[in-house]
Amino acid sequence: MSTDDLNIYVCGVGGFGIGSVSSILSRAAMIKGIDSIGSETHGLAQRGGVVVSTLRLGRNLNGSPLIIKGNADIVFALEPLEALRAMPYLRSQGTVIYNTQRFQPLSVRLGQFHYPGIDEIEKELLRITNRVIPVAASAKAKELGLSESANVIMLGILTRQGLLPFDMEVMREAVRMATPEKYVKINLVALESD
Amino acid sequence: MSEFDQLLGDSEGVINVMGNYGFVRGMIESGVQVATCYPGSPTAEMANAMLAISEKAGIYFEISTNEKVALEIAATSAIVGRPSVCWMKSVGLNVASDTAVQLAYLSMPGGLVVILGDDPGHLSSQNEQDNRYYARLGYLPFLEPATPQEAKDYFRLAMRLSRKHKFPVFIRTTTRTCHQTGPVQLDDIDKAPAQVIWNNETMQREGGYIPLPGTFPPMKKKALENLERIRLELDTHLINQTFQVGAGKPELRIITYGHTYQSTVSALTYLGISAEILKLGITHPLPTNTILDFIGEGGEILVFEELDPVIENEIKLLCFNKGIAARITGKSGQPDELDLMIGEYDPTRMVKVISGHLGIESGLNFGESSVEVPSRSPQLCPGCGHRTAFFAAKRAMGKDKEAFSTADIGCYSLGFLPPYRLGNLLYCMGSGAPSATAISRAFPDEPVLSFVGDSTFFHAAMPGIVNAVYNKHRQVIMVMDNGITAMTGHQPNPNSGFGSRGQAPKIPIDDILKAFGVKFVERVPSYQISKVEDALKRAFEFAHSPDGGVAVVIQDEPCALRRSRMEKKAGTLPNPLRIDPDICRNIQSCLKKFACPAIESTSEGKVEINTDLCIGCASCVQTCPLTNKPMKRIDDFRRV
Prior knowledge:
The complex is a heterodimer of chains A (194) and B (640). Chain A is an alpha/beta fold and 194 residues long. Chain A has helices spanning 18-32, 80-85, 106-109, 118-126, 137-144, 150-160, 168-178, 181-192; strands at 6-13, 35-39, 50-58, 72-77, 90-99, 131-135. Chain A starts with 5 loop residues before the first strand and ends with a helix. The mean pLDDT of chain B is 96. β2 (35-39) of chain A pairs antiparallel with β8 (180-186) of chain B, so a sheet runs across the interface.
């Protein structure tokens, strides 16, 4: 495995910007001359169901874009419960970054299940890795005036912590290329916010 | 510039796109003139791309009313000389099968490629049927790509073969290839004009197009010969290739293809096992010489394929016929044979299969949550008109009558989930009304109700409704009219008022039903729950009255997801609601009985509205039994 090889497991709830995380990251990879292959979820699952997108970055990539359990270097969860659901994919001592904004599934709203507390979720994830990064990304995104930018805020944090094979300059360029023109400005601010 | 414009590029270069767009680029490079489809996962995004770029690409594209119609238009276009393509989801081929099994008998000078999106793992279909059987039933060649690059390359090859042999060529793909992203190298676009000819002379020269008892045997002979010609041509083609994974003498020899090939490579790399792999590009007819070369003197060969042991059994037969003592190991005869026939082969599964075969440790190391993770099923969107209609239907049917409702294919299939549990029997597109017919005959006094969406109505539901009128059945049908084919990503249908090329006639469902002889047709606004409930109650009364019969209530509300997106963009989406805690008595009817995703429970056991999700439709207000409603519109709110 070369130092550029990275398996990223992006997950969340349908309709909350999972696709754009992958498209920004694969743009960044392209700028850096790193290959990327990915897998997306489409169709009915998008209607408020679990959505997973995987992305593998590297040189001379072969094999499936899907990630073997226990082999995701980064779990990027746009919702806390989905971070917990993704736990089997997280590599021991990998990174899990998650948005603390919850979206209650039907089973919780109907009282069939209990939605675990953030502390419970954190405790579980800490069994696998010390690198657990909760981010109040939705709240920050709303302050910026674009709720869809929560994912970009999280990408900015990963970049600044040196957990992606890209520097900020590359990410800025990728955001410019991968987001609709009228959101570019605000997304660039989101990328820098912490 | 739309994201699809990169598919139009004339010059060389590399784009990073999903498999579905790889196919679309293949169509453009191959000079396709006619493209037809009925949208269905995992191939639906091809329709979205074509809606955006077909005119610029000079391709006639249409979303037809169903897969059979789509295939007949594409195939006939190929017969008259135009390079044509048709695509559909796995079960779409069942609808189109009457036509599909005739294709091989007819000469198609223009070239016809059919793309089938199979769905191992039934990620978005009612089953995971193995469409490779249709290849055998219809004498059809099947190519199977793995990556977006191969999606494009195989399409080009398929069209070239089809034009050369005037024979239909199918590409079978799966969800993991359709929705896989990766690099695609652009090639030149074929701009050679196709010869469009159709007259008495060509009809005769091409062998005729009417299968009669006298003319059919030579047509079948020609089909079988064509299939053999294509097998011979591809037997030496590079789409069937041998790869070495890992260094040193191969520990395993494997035959596989498609995404299963990719999963196999991932698993071998992970396990550090070296192997020699024959990756097939064509799976029907099998490239037998290539396979025999690979097998050589014999020994053990592993065959990895998802779903049924189709090629495994054919390879066994091949070895038997040739007297080769090879041990072909796939799934048949394995202790876990039945399990191996279910679901997709992802890399984690292949790690288990290969390590299990070798009797070594899988090395898999992963954690599971010790806290229970609540399930998160898909659900109707916030403000969906189907939800208010289900709420009203449940009331109109009465207590414990859910079993008397049948479903159809669409977003409203989700009605079977709690709290509604409406629509409890489902086969396929259009099955709602006929299955309700049978229930109404068995239980003549019960409120029997079936649901059908607008696109499904035109696709396959009309014969069942005509049958109900003609055979004098007593049942109620609710048309879930949201004006669009919503589940697959908002493609237009004959009820939309627009089509593949802008404005189109809106074909009124109400008038069709009246012309069928349905005496009770009422259109009601879904957001007004009492009106829907009242209409349904009267519909049940009509169905059971002496002169009654079929009654139809049309639930009318545009798709909330599509409308709210457009209104949010335009800044016209109404403000969300909130619940006034001083008025709310925590009855929780809105939370537990209505169950809009925007209505959540708090950690204190109260109810609140998530203003990020609420689209302000105010339907929930009607579900609260209090006279003084606690749901209030927020006056000052900025949507971000």
